Amino acid sequence: MSISSSCLKVFEWDGTPAVNIGKIANNDAYSTGDNPDVMFLFIHDLLSWNFPNLRLLANHYARETGATLFLSRTSSAMNPSHLLPFSATTGISSMSRLSLRRTLARFVSLRSLRSLELRTKFKNVSAVGFCFGGWTLFNLGGKEQSPLVDCISAGHPTWLTKKDIEEVAVPVQILAPEIDTAFNAELKLHSFQTIPKLGIPFDYQHFPGVEHACFSRGDLNHAGEREAMIRGKNAVVSWFKQFLFETGRSADRTSSAVWSMKFVSCLLCTSCETKFNC
């Protein structure tokens, strides 16, 4: 499966993020916020940790949740202009895809979330990510990892498999654009049918009329995309507020997305032409 060509259709927002470069587990990271207990890990998409939109979005996440946030660099060479041979028609080459998988695996297992520095310094840790960053979250929150994070929010995840979906073990939010060849209708339906049976809270957010990469791009020239970006940001903030602060942790942690899951199920249903009448 290749990465969507939408990933590199760049639109930069107004505003200049502050230059706050720190370290997390000896890994360079853009940092914002000063909460000593609650932490956000933001795993970037193909546009890299240097993309201004992601840093501006990181500022919003930290400010609106009251958490400390790290937008971590996943590779010293993570720059689409020279790392990834890209074509709008062919997507990312298999060699580049495997390289990215290995890079992210090393980042997850060796340089970040397994670090005692992270798990001892912060009481609660969440993770948000887009594209291959979204796929990484399912590994961080999966059974195999004895979950390294407390909850996740994945936007248009790329490379996600049915096995990844079946093994997620922490509260999970999925932000799903309608137009997405990477997180396609089959995977969307599998997520909806599988995750509610796992005994974990699940929030599925459907974004009609927009495509893969809308959450970091927010292009005013694409109808509805800026609105989707804002709605996506608000959804992430609300989700993490529920699970990262003691006041938001319920005893039973029931699902917060019954209606939205019903909507997606009906949307993907092919048994009738008039939705919600079956």
Automatic annotation (TrEMBL):
Keyword RNA-binding: no
Sequence ranges assigned to domain Dienelactone hydrolase in this UniProt record: 111-243
GO molecular function annotation: hydrolase activity
Species whose genome carries this gene: Rhynchosporium secalis
UniProt xrefs under Gene3D superfamilies: alpha/beta hydrolase (3.40.50.1820)
Keyword set, alphabetical order: Hydrolase
Coiled coil: none
Protein name: Related to dienelactone hydrolase family protein
Signal peptide positions on this chain: none
Keyword GTP-binding attributed: no
Domain of life: Eukaryota
InterPro entries: AB_hydrolase_fold (IPR029058), Dienelactn_hydro (IPR002925)
Pfam family, one: DLH
